[in-house]
Write a structure and sequence with these properties.
Number of strands: 22
Helix content: 10-25%
Distance between the termini: 57 Å
Shape: elongated
Length: 498
C-alpha cells in the first residue's frame, strides 16, 4: 500500500513504467502479458485508478529503433592495439544515436597484461563518430575492471571526436564500485546561444572580461560521472574553429581562450587551459577538473597590442648569441618609452656620436638628465661597444627605480662600480648568476639574454604557438618564445587568473 499523497501530487505514466512520486520515488514495472496492471492511489479524499495493459513480448525499444554493435580498439595511444571493446549503438526513430560501451574485466585484464609487457602506462579506448551522429555516449567500467586497472598501475584515456577524458590511475584508487561517464555534445544552436547568454552575466566571467565581448567557441560539452572529488583531465577539440592565418594573431587568439564550467552543484568556474594537439591538424584545450557538468570554450576579446622592440637583420637572422651594443640598447629604451627624458635638450654631446648616427636621437634621449644610460669620463658613448652584464644591471636598477640595500651573493662583483645595482636586480629576481657562484659582470650581454630580461621587466609573457621568424632561432632554441615576443608586433590577451 502506498503512503498518503499530498493533494496535486503528479503521477507520470510511461509505456512500460508506472511512476508515482510520493515524497521521493516509487517504481512499478508492468509485467509482460495482457493482464492489466491496476494502481489505486488515495490522496486525502481523492481516489484515482489507472489501468495499463502491456502487450506480450513487447520490446522496451521503440519499434522503429535499431541496434547495432561496433567493435572498437583499445590501444596504447599510438595505434598499437592491445584489446577490443564493443559499442552498442541505438538509433532512434528520429535518427539520433546513443552509444553505450562497457569496458569489462576480461578486456581490462588483457589491456593491463599487454601494456605492462610493453612498458606502457596509459591505455586508450577509441570511440569513433566520424559522421558526428552520436548525441549521447555512455561508458561504464565495472568495479572488477577498475580493480584490474588499479592493480596494473594503468591510466585510462577515453578518446572520442568530441572530447578526451584522461583518468589517472591515482584517481581510481579506493573506488569500490562501477565507474561511468556520460558525454553529451551540445549541438543545437539555440542551446549553444543559451550557454553564451548565461556566460555573459556570470560573475566569474564578468570579473575577468569586464565589458569585453564574450563568444562561445566550438561546441559546449556536458560530461557527467560518478568520479566525484577525483582529478580527471579533459581535452576539448577546437572543432569547426577557423584560426587566424597570421601567426601572431593566431597565438593571441589561442591565449584568449578559457573554459567556462557550469558545475552540476551550481558552482561556476573559469579555467585557463593548455593548448596542445588533439590530433593531426586539430588543436585541443586541456584542463583538469574534479567535478563535472557543462564545459564551454569561451573567447574573450581582451587583447592589447604588443609592439616589437627588437629587430632582426636583413638576412633573416636574429643573431641571438651576438652581444647587444650600447646603441642598440639606447634604441630599445627609446622604443619602449622607458621613462628616459623625452626632451633630450640636456643630453651630453658625445664626441663619438655624430648627428647623422643611426641611433643619435635615441642615445641623446637615453643619456639626458634622468636618463637610463651614461657615457664615459672621456666624453664618449662608445655606441658600438657591447653592453656588459654589470651595465645592464645598472640600467635596470634605474629603470625600475630600485632602492635600498641588498646582500651581494656573487663571488666576483666586489668593488665593481655596479655592485649595489647587481645585488638589487638579483634580489628582484631579474638576473641570475652562474652555478659557480659568479656573476661575470664584464661578460657581454647577448641579444637573447637581453630580450629574456626585458620581457620579464615588461611582464610580457613569451609568445607561444607561433612559427619561427628568424632562421637562426628555431623552435628548439632556449629563448625562442622570448625572441618572438620581442621582435613581432602582435595582439596579446590581458586575461588574468588568480
Amino acid at each position: 500500500m502506498l503512503p498518503k499523497l499530498k493533494r496535486n501530487t503528479q503521477i507520470a505514466l510511461f509505456a512500460l513504467l508506472i511512476l508515482a512520486v510520493v515524497q521521493g520515488s516509487f517504481f512499478r514495472t508492468a509485467a509482460a502479458g495482457n493482464a492489466p496492471v491496476q494502481l489505486n492511489i488515495v490522496s486525502n479524499e481523492l481516489t484515482a485508478t489507472f489501468k495499463v495493459t502491456q502487450p506480450l513480448g513487447e520490446s522496451p525499444a521503440t519499434p522503429s529503433s535499431t541496434v547495432e554493435e561496433i567493435t572498437v580498439t583499445v590501444d596504447m595511444g599510438d595505434g598499437s592495439e592491445v584489446s577490443r571493446a564493443t559499442i552498442r549503438r541505438t538509433t532512434a526513430a528520429n535518427g539520433s544515436k546513443h552509444d553505450q560501451i562497457v569496458f569489462n574485466v576480461e578486456q581490462a585484464k588483457q589491456t593491463v597484461e599487454r601494456a605492462n609487457a610493453s612498458g606502457q602506462t596509459t591505455a586508450r579506448i577509441v570511440i569513433p563518430d566520424a559522421k558526428d551522429e552520436v548525441s549521447q555516449l555512455d561508458i561504464t567500467i565495472p568495479k572488477d575492471a577498475v580493480s584490474e586497472l588499479i592493480q596494473g598501475g594503468l591510466n585510462l584515456e577515453i578518446y572520442t571526436d568530441n572530447a578526451k577524458i584522461l583518468i589517472p590511475n591515482s584517481s581510481l584508487i579506493g573506488l569500490e564500485g562501477d565507474v561511468y561517464f556520460r558525454v553529451v555534445p551540445i549541438k543545437d544552436e539555440t542551446e549553444r546561444q543559451e550557454v553564451e547568454d548565461r556566460a555573459r552575466v556570470e560573475r566569474v566571467v564578468k570579473e575577468v572580461a569586464g565589458d569585453q565581448n564574450v563568444i562561445v567557441v566550438a561546441r559546449p560539452m556536458t560530461i557527467e560521472t560518478n568520479l566525484s572529488s577525483r582529478a580527471v583531465d579533459i581535452v576539448l577539440p577546437l572543432l569547426a574553429v577557423v584560426l587566424p592565418t597570421d601567426e601572431a594573431e593566431r597565438a593571441a587568439f589561442l591565449e584568449d581562450l578559457v573554459i567556462f564550467i557550469e558545475h552540476s552543484d551550481g558552482d561556476r568556474e573559469l579555467v585557463k587551459p593548455e593548448v596542445l594537439d588533439y590530433k593531426t591538424g586539430l588543436l585541443g584545450l586541456k584542463f583538469r577538473v574534479n567535478k563535472f557538468s557543462t564545459f564551454t570554450i569561451l573567447n574573450m576579446d581582451t587583447a592589447t597590442e604588443h609592439k616589437s622592440y627588437m629587430e632582426g637583420y636583413p638576412d633573416g637572422t636574429f643573431k641571438p648569441d651576438r652581444g647587444i651594443s650600447r646603441a642598440e640598447m639606447a634604441m630599445i629604451l627609446d622604443r619602449l618609452e622607458t621613462g628616459a627624458a623625452q626632451d633630450a635638450g640636456g643630453a651630453t654631446a658625445f664626441s663619438d656620436v655624430a648627428s647623422g648616427h643611426w641611433a643619435s636621437s635615441a642615445i641623446r634621449s637615453a643619456s639626458a638628465s634622468g636618463g637610463l644610460m651614461t657615457g664615459f669620463s672621456d666624453g664618449t658613448f662608445r655606441p658600438e661597444q657591447t653592453i656588459t652584464r654589470a651595465e645592464i644591471a645598472a640600467i635596470v636598477s634605474r629603470w625600475l627605480e630600485l632602492h635600498g640595500n641588498a646582500p651581494s651573493t656573487f663571488n666576483d662583483v666586489a668593488g665593481n662600480e655596479a655592485e649595489k645595482e647587481i645585488a638589487l636586480v638579483r634580489q628582484a629576481g631579474l638576473i641570475e648568476g652562474y652555478p659557480d657562484g659568479s656573476f661575470r659582470p664584464d661578460q657581454p650581454l647577448t641579444r637573447a639574454e637581453a630580450v629574456t630580461l626585458i620581457n620579464k621587466i615588461l611582464k610580457r609573457g613569451s609568445l607561444e604557438w607561433t612559427s619561427p621568424t628568424w632562421s637562426d632561432v628555431p623552435l628548439a632554441h632556449w629563448a625562442f618564445e622570448d625572441v618572438e615576443e620581442a621582435s613581432r608586433t602582435h595582439r596579446h590577451p590581458t586575461i588574468q587568473f588568480k
